[in-house]
Hints:
Layout: E1 2-7, H1 20-27, E2 32-37, E3 50-52, E4 60-62, H2 64-78, E5 82-92, H3 95-101, E6 106-111, H4 119-124, E7 128-131, H5 141-152, E8 185-186, E9 189-190, H6 200-218, H7 220-223
Parallel strand pairs: 1-2, 1-6, 5-6, 5-7
Antiparallel strand pairs: 3-4, 8-9
Adenine binds next to strand 5.
Amino acid sequence: MNIHIISVVPELLESPFSHSIMKRASEKGLLHITLHNLRKWAVNEHGMVDDYQFGGGAGMVMMCEPLVNAIEELNNKHSFDEIIYLTPDGEKFNQSIANNLSLKKSILFICGHYKGIDQRIRDHFITREISIGDYVLSGGELAAAVIVDAIGRLIPGVLNDETSALFDSFQDNLLAPPVYTRPEEFRTWKVPSVLLSGDHKKIEEWRYDQAVERTKEKRPDLLDND
Ligand code: ADE
């Protein structure tokens, strides 16, 4: 999968993709992430990419010209399946959107800053608008990092144990069941005996029941969704 990200502070995104699972994914050639500094397409030698908003009001707006030039140049080269704008007023990101995006071949993410981007870019170029939650970040970069991480780990071959993403929380609208590791007993607290039984059918039933219980207790809204 090819992911391109346009940002005015691409440095913010260097670290999240340079470690752990995301690093392994790019080393294995399964995920290529390219960061683009929007100032490359600035309208003047001062790196101008934003301007005052028409009608007055505090805060700058990212201008059409640099972003449209950037989007068109990159889209001509890479022909994106989706051009996604990260914004607090987009559809709220969840596991089902992550699953859907993980099947795409190439995605362009646009990180907004200040008051956002000129509406005409949204009207004419953006195929999808996504928010990572009901709060306002100072820019779309951290949202892009969250989404790319969630998508990247779903690409077959990225995780060592390929099946493990299938059992993540939210995959069946259920939270994941509790997990335990050695020792079997720590300060008198014992691991549930069923997990030590070797009976795989019983273990699966127990995990499913625990997942349902946990979801009922912590996120009953997930059970109403079906
Ligand atoms: N940009 C600013 N806030 C955001 C949010 N909550 N989700 C996605 N992009 C954003």
